[in-house]
UniProtKB/TrEMBL annotation:
Superkingdom per UniProt: Bacteria
Name of this chain's protein: Lipoprotein SmpA/OmlA domain-containing protein
Species per Swiss-Prot/TrEMBL record: Pectobacterium odoriferum
PROSITE patterns: PROKAR_LIPOPROTEIN (PS51257)
Lineage, highest ranks first: Bacteria, Pseudomonadati, Pseudomonadota, Gammaproteobacteria, Enterobacterales
Amino acid sequence: MKKFIIVTLVSLTLSGCYSFGNQTLKNVTQEDVKAKIVKGKTTKSEVLTAFGEPDKRITSDDEEKWSYSMHNYRSKPTSYIPIVGILTGGTDIEEKSILITFKGEKVSSYEFTSGASEMKSGVF
């Protein structure tokens, strides 16, 4: 019986999470980005070292943009409690992104965004 309870709890915990995108950003803060990216100085290779390959590259006439994003979804533990889950269940959402613009080989600008939200699936 103990094994069944442990397996059930582990399964519920693991099934309640979903992540996609560049997980390098998971623990990155605005201060980290400021320390790693300096406008007019940081190069493409330094950005690759810091954040890995971008999710998307957009090239125009005189500039190139690299986009990084991370999305994590975690079900609230109350979602798995019978009756309580129907009333108060939901998902916590964490999102982060960096958009870096290069002119030549150097960063000309960047934007870091970070946010958390909640998606409710319960009545309340």
